[in-house]
Structures are given as C-alpha cells and as structure tokens.
Amino acid sequence: MNAKGYHVAVVGATGAVGEQMLQTLEKRNFPISKLTLLSSARSAGTKLTFKGEEYTVQEATPESFEGVQIALFSAGGSVSLKFAPEAVKRGAIVIDNTSAYRMDENTPLVVPEVNEDDLKKHNGIIANPNCSTIQMVVALEPLREKYGLNKVIVSTYQAVSGAGVQAINELKEQAKALLEGEEIDPQILPVGSDEKHYQIAFNAIPQIDKFQDNGYTFEEMKMINETKKIMHLPELEVAATCVRLPVATGHSESVYVEIGADDITAEDVKNLLNDFEGVTLQDDPSQQIYPMPADCVGKNDVFVGRIRKDLDRPNGFHMWVVSDNLLKGAAWNSVQIAESLIKLNLV
After folding, report:
1. β-strand pairing of 302-309 with 316-323
2. Which residue numbers are catalytic?
3. How many Å apart are CA 320 and CA 310, to the nearest integer?
4. Residues 6 or more apart from 315 whose CB is under 8 A from it?
5. How far lies 202's CA from each of 29, 205, 293, in Å?
6. Which residues, 6 or more positions from 205, have their beta carbon under 8 angstroms from its beta carbon?
7. Dihedral angle computed from the Cα positions of residues 335, 337, 341 and 343, in that order, rounded to the nearest 10 degrees
C-alpha cells in the first residue's frame, strides 16, 4: 500500500455502517493522509474519534470532495445519486454502499474475492452489493470457479441492523415491553414508509423492502439480479425469499445450489470452501459445530456450515451461510474494495 496515504472521505459517518467503516479503516491501518467525515445537516457537528484524534462531522456539499481520492458512501441512495457524481467530478473514486448504482451497466458491482478484476472497468463509481448477496456469492464462488453453477435457491434470515439503528432500538424496546406485559406500537419494520408495521420481537417477518409487481420484494430482486451481475452469469437460475428475524446483527442464509457436476461429495465441497480466502468453514455435525450470527459479529469472514448433498439431485448441495451484515455485508467489503484499488494501482 502507498506509504504516503490517501485523502479519504466517509459519507454517512454517523450511521451504523459509517461507524463500522471508520473502525475497519482503523483496524486495517488503511493509509490515510487526510480524513473527511460527512453527513446530512441533521448530524453535522457530531464529534467522532479516529485513531485517538477527534473529528467534527461536516455537512456534505459538492465542495466537500475537493482533493478527496477515495470516498466511501453509506448515507442512502438519494445522497449517493446527488453527491457521488460531484465527488467523481472532483477526482475521487466513489465506493457506494447503497442500491443507487448497483444495477447501472457502467458501474462495477464488486466483491473482491469474486470479481476483483471488474474494478479495472470503473468510471469513478464502484457499487458495494447488497449485504445478503455479498455473503452468498463468496460462499458460491469456489463452486462456480471449479464446477460451474446451474441454479441457486436462497432463504435468508436477516438481522434488524440491516434496517438501521432505529430498527435495532425497536427490537430492544418491543422485547422489553412484551416481557413486561406492555402494549407495543410498531413503527419501523418491515418497511418504514409502508402503511403497515409489524412486531419484530419474538416474530419473523417475511418481507424485507417493498413488494414488486411480480410478488417478490425489492430485497429478493436485489439478490437475484446482483448475483447474476457479480458472477457474470446472466442465465443463472436464482430465486430468493428474504425474512427479517429478531436478531440484532448477523445475516443467516439457507442456500441450495446445483453445480455443473454430478460426482462431487459434500467432503469435496467442504475442502473447496475451507481453502477459499474470506471463508471460514464451521462444519462438524458430530460436535454440533455450525455458524451462528451470535458468533460472527465483529468478524470479517463469511462462515459456512451444514454442507450436505441433496438426497434427490446428484448435483445439488445445501449449505448454511452466516456473516456480519455490517462488516462483510457493508463496511469491510467497501474498505476491501479500496484496498484492491490500491493493490491494482487504480487510485
């Protein structure tokens, strides 16, 4: 990495992902010569500490990006649409953690373990995929690489932190109220702007984001479309069902995959995943060892277990995939992209 360091901006620095981005930059000892923290007018003035030094968060304006080389965005799609082009205009490379540019054909959608080379085609903006997509494609990539993929069916069990800090607070408040026999008044989940809101404590909500005309939610369509784009497999058959659970952090996924080979054993798949960078294999049913969200919080890897061959299809496998949605699903993947840009001499 460049010893001189880079001028880095974090947009949405006071949010859950923004905070994780700062912690990740610090942990990775990312080469920073100057740090600019930006947010909406509402959060401007907030003081944050980075490497023992106090920084005041400023309101984002087009001029905020003068001299910035790498800008990490995590402040909502409308903010990215407004300010990402302004940052690029001033010479910055934007790594955007919202859905604003993910399906734009001129914007690479990148998970470094899977399609790092796509960074070479960037036009100033790089999209960070949806959190649930990221962990799944990391687990599937070694299989795609060696055998090819024919079909993927995923059911997700997603943490409330994916819906922001307010959703975490709502889960805690509801759990406390229900345990004390009090009434609750849901306001946030499944979708803040939808008409109806449901209890999340001691419940499972089979809706993440808004429903589309085809009966799938926007979150499910994100997983379907993003997987095809990241893996350069437009014809891949993908189906998703996304469910919100009363878990604070850590998304879990039950993934069924059909590969392009019939004579592969579960042991072959385990060995392949065990050797893949970014994956931690936790798979020993005899000792009840498998991934759980409570154990993956604060860790960068994607954890995979419960790998077994389908009983009816010789090329079918089932697996259980867990990851910290705020880290690999957001902040760590973004910082990893920045590290890849430096490694590939693209910044």
Report:
1. antiparallel
2. 131, 251
3. 13
4. 150, 258, 259, 260, 261, 262, 264
5. 40, 10, 16
6. 189, 190, 198, 243, 244
7. 80
DSSP per position, 317-340 = EEEEEEE-TTIIIIIHHHHHHHHH
Whether 4 has a pLDDT exceeding 90, the answer reads no
Q: Hey, what's the torsion of the CAs at 132, 135, 136, 138, to 10 degrees?
A: 150
Would you tell me the crossing angle of helices 218-230 and 131-147 to the nearest 10 degrees? Answer: 40
Structure-token pair, residue 320: 């259980």
Got the DSSP string for 178-241? HHTT------SSS-TTSS-----TT--BS--SPBPTTS-BHHHHHHHHHHHHHTT-TT-EEEEE
pLDDT > 90 fraction of the chain, expressed in percent and rounded:
97
Check whether the bond before 190 is cis (ω within 30° of 0): yes
**Would the pTM of this model clear 0.85, i.e. be above it?**
yes
- Read off the pLDDT of residues 12-31 as tens digits, 9 standing for 90 and up: 999 989 999 999 999 999 99
Cβ atoms of 36 and 8 closer than 8 Å:
yes
How do beta strands 251-259 and 279-281 pair? unpaired
Per the CB < 8 A criterion, the answer to whether 303 and 321 are in contact is yes
Q: Which residues contact 34 (CB under 8 A, 6 or more apart)?
A: 5, 7, 8, 67
For residue range 105-118, list pLDDT tens digits in order. Answer: 999 999 999 999 99
**CA separation for the pair 191, 324 (Å, rounded):** 21
CB 183 within 8 A of CB 175: no
How much helix, strand and coil, in percent to the nearest 5, is found in the chain? 35, 25, 40
Q: Is 101 exposed, middle or buried (0-12, 13-18, 19+ CB in 10 A)?
A: buried
